[in-house]
Amino acid sequence: MAAEGKTTAKSGGQMTVVRGLDVARYMGRWYEIASFPSFFQPRDGRDTRATYRLLEDGATVHVLNETWSKGKRDYIEGTAYKADASSDEAKLKVKFYLPPFLPIIPVVGDYWVLYVDDDYQYALVGEPRRKNLWILCRKTSIDEEVYNQLVERAKEEGYDVSKLHRTPQDDPPPESDAAPTDTKGVWWFKSLFGK
Length: 195
Fold this sequence. Notes:
This protein is mainly beta. Helices cover 12% and strands 42% of the residues. A hairpin with a 2-residue loop joins β5 and β6.
C-alpha cells in the first residue's frame, strides 16, 4: 500500500492522505460505490464512474466522469494535477469547465486520496473541507466488509458518514455509447435547484 501521512486540513484537524501514490496504477476506470450527494451530479444518477488517463506530459490526468439519469448518459471532462508538484502527498486539483454543454467557466476543486489498497482495487477520496467524499472500486460492487472498513476510515477522518449515499450500479455496466447523451445539460440546471 502507498504510505500514508498526516496533513493538516483547512478545518484545523488532521487528515491522513496517501503518500507516494503510484499514479500509473491509479489510472483507469473507477466505479462510484458511494458518495456525498453534490450539486454537480444528478440526484437520480446511477452507474456513476470516473475514468482517468495520464497525458503525455506525465503530470496531467484527463478525467471523464459519467453517470446515467433517466436513461441518458451525462458526462463531464476535465483535468487533474498535483496541488504541489514537489510533494509526495496524493493531493490533487481537478478542473472542470461549466456548464457542460458550453464549457466556459472553470471550476477547480480538491481531490485527496485518503486511502488506496495495495492492489489499487478500491479507494477513499475526500477533500480538506470534508464536504465531498467518494468510495471507489474497480468493479461495480464491493465486498460489504471492505465497504464498512472504508466508511469507518472516513469517520475516523472526521467525515459525517451519515451523508453517504450508495450509488446504484448495474452489472455489467452500461457502455458509454449505449444510451443517448444529454447534450443540453438539463441535469446540470436541475441540480442547481436540488432536483
